[in-house]
Amino acid sequence: MQQHELEKLMADSAKDAVGTSRDMFNIELDYSADSIELIDSLILAFIDRFKDQALEDNAVFTLCNIYGAYIGEVMRSLIGGTWRYDESDKSAPYVVLDVGEYSYAFAGICYERLVNDSQVSVKAYFDQALANNTQ
Predict the structure, then answer these.
(1) How far out from the chain centre does Cα 131 lie?
(2) How many Cβ atoms are within 10 Å of 121's Cβ, its own excluded?
(3) Short-list 37, 18, 14, CA closest to 27
(4) Scanning 36, 80, 105, 108, which has its CA 20 to 30 A from the CA of 114?
(5) CB-based contact 79:99 (threshold 8 Å)
(6) Nearest Cα to 122, choosing from 64, 52, 55?
(7) Pairing mode, strands 94-99 and 102-104
(8) Helix (H, G, I), strand (E, B), or coil: what is residue 89?
(9) What distance in Å separates the CA atoms of residue 14 and residue 96, rounded to the nearest whole number?
């Protein structure tokens, strides 16, 4: 995948997160740092509304990727960064945002909150990522 294709994919996925949040929950995401806190609530709202359907593989993949893209696009707008498609494990490629010496798996933190531990905070992860790069 070419870099410009990856950047377009992530920007389009972030737009999907905005549209999905508006259409399904009447919540407006505005690409601000403050809007990241809404992602924590939105992820759990999908479980409340769709129960087990929210945890089906396709739904999990889609939700985690669109909200991960949204978080990354907010981060890029604030401090920059480059999307990277990591294929080091050919059976499970993933996308990270590289910022300075750090790499952030925003879709991964969404997955943790959605599937493994509803106490995991997407906002706390984002805030730490921001702090790592603005000190």
Answers:
(1) 18
(2) 18
(3) 18
(4) 80
(5) yes
(6) 64
(7) antiparallel
(8) coil
(9) 14
Distances (CA, A) of 123 to 26, 40, 93, 110: 20, 7, 24, 10
User: 84: part of which helix (H) or strand (E)?
Assistant: strand 82-86
Greater confidence (116 vs 93) lies with 116
What does the alpha-carbon distance between residue 110 and residue 47 come to, in Å, rounded to a whole number? 13
- Residue pLDDT, tens place only, 20-50: 999 999 999 999 999 999 999 999 998 888 7
How far apart are the C-alpha atoms of 2 and 125, rounded to whole Å?
A: 28
Q: Which long-range contacts (CB under 8 A, 24 or more apart) does 52-56 make?
A: 54/114, 55/114, 55/115
- Return the DSSP state at 85: E
The widest CA-to-CA distance across the chain, in whole angstroms, is: 41
Q: What is the pTM (predicted TM-score) of this model?
A: 0.93
105-131 pLDDT, tens digit per residue, is: 999 999 999 989 999 999 999 999 999
Dig out the tokens for 44 from the structure.
């759990």
